[in-house]
Amino acid sequence: MGDASLHAKVIEFLPALGREATILAIAVALLIFLQRRYLLLSRFFAASADPLNLAVVRIVVFSALLLQENYARILRFAQLPKVLQLTPVGWAPIVKVFPVHEHVVAVLYWTFAAACVAAIVGIVTRFSCLLAAGLAIYVLGVPQLYGKVNHYHHLIWFALILGFSQCGDALSIDSLFAALKRADDGEIHGPVASRAYGLPLRFMMAALALVYFFPGTWKLARGGWAWIFSDNLRIQMYQKWAEFGNWTPWLRIDHFPRLIMVFALLAVCFEVSFGFLILWPRLRPLAALAGLAFHNGIGLMMRIPFLSLQFMYVIFIDWKGLFVATGKRMFPQVLPVIYDDSCKLCRRTVAILQSLNWGERVQFVGSSDHGSLIALGAEDICQQGVLPLFTAFAPEGRVYGYKAYVRLVPRLPLLSILTPILLLAPVRAMGERTYARVAESRTCSLVPMKTATPSPQTAAPSTALWCAGLSLLAINILCGSFHIVRAWPFACYPTFDRVKKAELHRLIASVAVRDGTHQEYELSHDPVMAKMFSAERWQGLTYRVEETPAGNVSDNQLHAMWELWREYHSIPDDGMSVSFYEETVPVDFDGHLNAERGPGTAGPNRTLMGGKTL
User: What is the pLDDT of residues 524-565, one digit of tens each?
Assistant: First the structure.
């Protein structure tokens, strides 16, 4: 029965696969045309970026990865019966080799959490990124084994790309140690914009384009125009509302069916065109804004905001450019600061401050850089052998020592929050004493300084980064082309491509009581189980159990679900037997369930799935 059903589904799917292949051929032809005519692909992947941009993405990605699933819920899934494991594509043999055990999951989770924290703060950054990504496949994969695959795969992809990149060259503990090492070699300037930082961001943008592209094309290939110009989207909204306990949004857009069709058309156009729009720098912000509007609109109408994907839109922001532009507005004039470049401690301090000088509103000048000193009108310092104090050239005149630090701190974004504290009288007095003591006891090491302005790096990205990025894109293209949605950690994202019927499926348990009556319980849309396992995961598990062909496996799964449900519900212990039904409930066009059913009997809207003697 199961093989016949599968064969029928394959035969039904083949025409859609042919239409999808046609759409893909057109898309590839368009990309070839854009490359030959405008060199868009070459320019897209050859773009440079500042290390700060990549560092911000690193912090956001691993913060989102760490917060994606809470520990208690992961452990709760690890304790579920093995019979309820309805594994994603390709995971059945893996689970046999690496079984899910709650103690193993606990150890690996905290190792994963530590790796994420290390990646966020930038300790042994590349190793921490790869370790966190590798452990995330297992740890975050545990809930994915039980029926419902939630698509936060992009977090794994981006984490892997970051692990093969130089994402720790800014905003990291590693970058501070690198600054100290540069200072000892006589260089205070850090790495500047290059392709080594731009290519990882481009791979992420391309992966994001695939996230949208294939769901859009499958809507056209499988649903056709009926997906757009029918009540399909409205029905999908009603089904989602029913899954959330007949929840309804405050804006009842379902009362305007033609407007919903317009939104359906815009959604498909956005998904298919996003990957092409981001190839043009001027259209890229428009594509990003459209994406945020797309997700928040779905969140408003269907409670699917896809926040983990929205957070990834940080890849479209030029953080370095933003800090520079903001700095110019706040501090129109650059603050020159002169330091003693013959002092090892001074060089190290300035190298760290320069690594935080994102807005470029401070110009650090070494005491041996006579050309820059003369340009600043500081000829007197050229005649001194050693600069006695840290000196800032404020608009009202020179400021020395601790006061010079107070002047430059507001211009360093990460340290600017300390400005009010530094101005407090006790802090100021302690700071001045500390600076005087350090200035008197400092030791000097004469190291020639590199006074020339650093030129942009020309080093190409590593081969490992190219291989990782291209492999990631290739695997996702393969998954998207063949509609492989229930997979982990690579997959086609949810397509919602079927034209829906105005109905909802429920799993009902009917308990035969000793007094001859029947007591019914709905297992699928249950608020208690939704709280323990999340609504979409619990409902996904019940749906997958309903799809399991009748037999021993199906019976065991139904019994296991019943026992699991009973653990979290107090019900009378007077039942003799329980029967399980798949119930098809019509959804009316007010967005509510037509829940009338005859208790205890399998009417025309029910299918008996199995039973158990209690």
Answer: 888 888 888 888 888 888 888 877 776 666 788 888 888 888
Q: Hey, what are 581's tokens?
A: 């039904």
What is the rounded distance in angstroms from the CA atom of residue 564 to the CA atom of residue 610?
17
Query: 51 φ, ψ to 5°?
Result: -60, -25
Bridge partner list, 335:
362
pLDDT of residue 382: 62
Phi, psi of 221 (to 5 degrees): -75, -35
- State the DSSP string of 164-223: TTTTTSSSSHHHHHHHHHHHHTT-------BHHHHHHHHHHHHHHHHHHHHHHHHIIIII
- Gap between the Cα atoms of 441 and 523, Å rounded: 74
Distance of alpha carbon 364 from alpha carbon 353, whole angstroms: 9
Question: Residue type at 443?
Answer: T
Please tell me the chain's helix, strand, coil percentages from 3-state DSSP, rounded to the nearest 5.
60, 10, 30
Residue type for position 532:
M
Which residues fall within 8 angstroms of residue 42, CB to CB, at 6 or more apart? Answer: 35
Tokens of 422: 């530094």
DSSP assignment string, 546-605: HHSPSSHHHHHHHHHHHHHHHHT----S-EEEEEEEEEEEEB-TTS-B-----TTS--TT
- How far apart are alpha carbons 367 and 133 in whole angstroms? 46
> Which residue is listed with tokens 């459209």?
290
Kindly state the tokens that stand for 603: 């009417």
Label residue 457 by pLDDT band (50, 70, 90).
Answer: very low
Residue 274 tokens read as 């996003």
- Across all residues in the chain, what is the average pLDDT? 85
Question: Residue 540 CA to chain centroid, in angstroms?
Answer: 22
The residue assigned the tokens 């029965």 is: 1
Residue among 125, 60, 57, 123 nearest 319 (CA): 57
Would you state the pLDDT for residue 216?
94
